[in-house]
Write a structure and sequence with these properties.
- This protein folds into two domains: 7-261, 3-Layer(aba) Sandwich (Rossmann fold); 333-436, ANL, C-terminal domain (GMP Synthetase, Chain A, domain 3, 2-Layer Sandwich).
- The protein contains eleven helices and 20 strands.
- The protein has helices spanning 10-27, 29-37, 45-48, 63-72, 107-124, 145-154, 166-175, 185-197, 221-231, 342-350, 391-410, and strands spanning 87-93, 101-106, 131-134, 157-159, 180-183, 209-212, 234-241, 245-250, 259-260, 266-271, 286-293, 304-315, 321-328, 333-335, 338-340, 356-364, 370-371, 375-381, 414-419, 434-436.
- Strands 4-3-5-6-7-8-9 form a seven-stranded mixed β-sheet, sandwiched between helices. Strands 10-11-12-13 form a four-stranded antiparallel β-sheet. Strands 19-18-16-20 form a four-stranded mixed β-sheet, covered by helices on one side.
- It is globular and about 75 Å long.
Length: 438
């Protein structure tokens, strides 16, 4: 099977989704046209959808379709399915163009989001007694206000410091008994570096838990080990999508990956990103996640291609599949036919900490995904590089070692340039791992 629906939920989810699909063409001109174009008309939904396996016969929705929908019918698009007076909040995702893609949320949608996100954070280890430093954007970002709502649902104490306020974050940790941090993986490392630069040890603040999401990184072994070592805290990660729900997968502590925590609100498929065909959800499988909303009022997407590439790492104690996100298919680079995720390069560089800081950027001569070798990588040397003298020689050795590591692990030839610590961009949100030359 190519879905993550729990066996005990399949019947209920099938009935809910059938009702959603049967009424969708009447509510959404976007889906009325899309279904008709693929031979799925308003009158034959019941015949076309007898069970979850039949979902594979429905057309995909992708991000470009949503952008075009909103451009044609602003502000929320032809796919929105409810009028603006029914919307209680609007979020946005920016994507590669920088232009916001608006996501409307009704009162019922917001309640469903809170249910899903609270379930994910409980799975990740959040408890009522936690004091959580919520260091994520509190504006349009779906990882902001909805996660605050979910943590409050759990009963945790939320300190909504947001982003761009590291000094306030430090003050909160000093005075409020903070036990947990929620942020992007990049910010968890950034804040540790900020403290180190001020002559302080992150461990002195006594954090026990770090909840991360919003970008790949939390599941990269070397990156995670570094963050856990810096803080003396356990890292768990969540995965979601601005267009569907803020968090749909959550990682149980001390497990091999994230499990589906969306309950009966979302159907998740695993597909081959090249062919679009379903992929069986079993250990060792990899593919792209595709989301279908079961009970969404505004923006009720069908088979939405997330571009999140994941690997099934095993099964949990309850038999549910576990996954790790290995990158986004729209971030992936192709070097002489070899697929390379920038996050994988970062993780390899991180393995040589403290000889490297772990900060890395891939410099592209032109827009990807195709890149002519060698892959140009800039990496910061760290305090452990040349600590015993002969810094120039140590950096030369480190550069060659990184090139060999990338070639042996990722099967691509790289040209590594080492730069001083602090040279590469840091971000309190998502780190940019590639940039165009010049």
């Amino acid at each position: 099977m190519g879905t993550f629906v729990a066996p005990e939920d399949r019947e209920a989810v099938t009935e809910l989704l059938r009702g959603q699909l049967e009424g969708l063409a009447a509510r959404s001109p976007f889906y009325a046209d899309l279904f008709a174009a693929h031979g799925v008309g308003r009158g034959n939904i019941s015949a076309a959808f007898a069970g979850l396996d039949d979902l594979a016969a429905f057309p995909f929705t992708d991000k470009q379709m949503l952008r075009e929908s909103q451009a044609a019918t602003p502000p929320l698009g032809r796919h929105a399915a409810v009028a603006m007076p029914e919307i209680i909040r609007v979020h946005a995702s920016t994507g590669t163009t920088g232009r916001p893609s608006w996501v409307g949320v009704t009162r019922r949608d917001a309640a469903a989001w809170t249910d899903m996100v609270a379930n994910a954070f409980r799975t990740m280890g959040a408890e009522r007694d936690d004091v959580v430093l919520h260091a994520a954007g509190l504006g349009l970002f779906v990882g902001g206000l909805p996660i605050r709502d979910a943590l409050e649902r759990i009963g945790a104490t939320v300190v909504p410091v947001g982003t761009g306020a590291s000094e306030k974050a430090v003050l909160a940790m000093e005075t409020l008994g903070v036990t947990a941090l929620h942020s992007t993986p990049s910010y968890a490392r950034y804040l540790a570096e900020h403290l180190r630069a001020a002559g302080r040890d992150p461990k002195e603040f006594g954090l026990k838990k770090i909840f991360v999401g919003g970008e790949p990184g939390g599941g990269e072994p070397a990156f995670r080990a570094h963050v856990e070592s810096e803080w003396g805290a356990t890292v768990t990660e969540g995965l979601g999508n601005a267009d569907m729900a803020p968090v749909i997968f959550g990682e149980p502590p001390a497990s091999a990956g994230m499990r589906f925590t969306g309950g009966r609100h979302v159907v998740v498929e695993l597909i081959d990103p090249d062919t679009g065909e379903p992929v069986d959800v079993e250990p060792g499988a990899s593919g792209e996640l595709v989301y279908t909303s079961v009970d969404r009022e505004c923006c009720p997407l069908v088979r939405f291609r997330t571009r999140d590439r994941v690997r099934v790492t095993g099964v949990g104690a309850d038999g549910a599949p576990l996954i790790r996100c290995i990158g986004r298919t729209d971030d992936m680079l192709i070097v002489l036919g070899v697929n390379v995720f920038p996050s994988a390069v970062r993780d390899l560089v991180q393995t040589l900490h403290p000889r490297t800081t772990g900060a890395v950027q891939i410099v592209l001569p032109r827009q990807g995904p195709r890149v002519e070798p060698p892959l140009r990588v800039e990496a910061e040397w760290g305090p452990g590089c040349g600590a015993d003298g002969d810094a120039d020689g140590a950096r030369e050795v480190l550069g060659r070692e990184l090139e060999t590591l990338i070639r042996n692990r990722l099967s691509v030839r790289a040209a590594v340039t080492l730069v001083p610590p602090g040279s590469l961009e840091r971000s309190e949100m998502k780190s940019r791992l590639t940039r165009l030359a010049g």
